[in-house]
Amino acid sequence: MSCLMVERCGEISFDNPDQNAKCVCMLGDVRVGGQTGVPAERRGSYPFIDFRILNNTAHSGEIGTKKKVKRLLSFQRYFHASRLLRGAIPPSPLHFLDEDYLGQARHMLSKVGTWDFDIFLFDRLTNGNSLVTLLCHLFNSHGLIHHFHLDMVTLHKFLVMVQEDYHSQNPYHNAVHAADVTQAMHCFLMEPKLSSFLTPLDIMLGLLSAAAHDVDHPGVSQPFLIKTNHYLCSLYQNESVLENHHWRSTVGMLRESRLFAHLPKEMTQDIEQQLGSLIKATDINRQNEFLIRLRDQLNNQNLRLEDAQDRHFMLQIALKCADICNPCRMWELSKQWSERVCEEFYRQGHLEQKFELEISPLCNQQKDSIPSIQIGFMTHVAEPLFKEWSHFTDNSPLAENMISNLTRNLAKWNSLQHTQPSSGGGSSDSNSNKINDQTGQGTENEEQTGNEGDTP
């Protein structure tokens, strides 16, 4: 593997006429506002760093491997390396825990179970530490620290690692999104239909998977990585590439922080495997697979939450709902998320256009308008899933609130689309077809209910 990595880094150069090599080289640049210049610390500028990491990992034994595995595959490793090469000392992220709970932030945490929780405001009040602050609070309020005998400083260290491995340059896939998904997951775990069956392990897995489900996301899609021959695609054989990377990165941070070092080995292995199953369930290409299985189990009334496998499946569904719950938030919050995700799409499209690649679906700013993208996503992805979730909860107040918000937001986007000039943006029907292709609707085997080996 070392030889392959060194060869890969050696081949990537802006003097290389190969367009795909250039695109892999520029992958990190899409996260810095689409700037056209090449920063000095661009990933790939220091190929010897890859060799040093791989060489040290290969000869440092099990302990060294655990400490290096996260950085080995990280999209950030050159960023961290270049800071050290410039002599800059990263500021210590370990702040006093009590500081995050003062004033308005503490007041907001008292309402963390309400659906209108404003994660953007909370992130500002915590000075950009929304994910760490939220998880520390939830682990404490759910009694997880006491139940699993967790060391608070070690927990905080791990959460800081997770938060820092998100890229703030991404308009959408950043630590604020992770905090938003975690807050939504907390709300779903409190649903009466589910909460009475959950064990402390279920709750911890739900919160951890939500917090880390997009860690180290590069701000581009899996198809982009595939067509630019990114090494992660070879590593994971083009299957749930990003989700596998998020999971493996999370495992690396768990081992490096030694958060669960005091637990039995069998238990830590089970935690790691279940986290993988949960995080990989967020792959949008598997949307139809999970929707069909959920609908069948609800219609046949054979969902038994006393059974660990059925509970795990509902945790997967809860995480999928939390991951795409933006259309179900109140308009003021939902609109911000819609604009952010489309901005990230457009940045990828600009990068593809720059290197004369085919622009990915939903990424053409000249043809794919925000209203049309949102209408297609809400109609064909969000609405079907949340209707089944509402069915599962017996139309709980929270589920009714989410469906009501989704209906109002969809009407607003339809209204905005009709007020746009006729020459701007693609039609919602066109974008609906693109979304259907991405989510597997109409292409998946209707009898398929799961991938072997995914659910423990």
UniProtKB/TrEMBL annotation:
Q: Which GO terms describe its molecular function?
A: 3',5'-cyclic-AMP phosphodiesterase activity; metal ion binding
Do you know which Pfam families this protein is assigned to? PDEase_I
Hydrolase is among the record's keywords: yes
Which parts of the sequence are annotated with region: Disordered?
416-456
| Keyword Coiled coil among record annotations | yes
- Name the keywords, alphabetized: cAMP, Coiled coil, Hydrolase, Metal-binding
Q: What is the E.C. number?
A: 3.1.4.-
Protein residues bound to Zn(2+) 1: H177, H213, D214, D323
Q: Where is the composition biased (Low complexity)?
A: 428-443
Q: Which PANTHER family match?
A: CYCLIC NUCLEOTIDE PHOSPHODIESTERASE
Q: What is the protein's name according to its record?
A: Phosphodiesterase
Q: What is the lineage of its organism?
A: Eukaryota, Metazoa, Chordata, Craniata, Vertebrata
Gene that encodes the chain? PDE7B
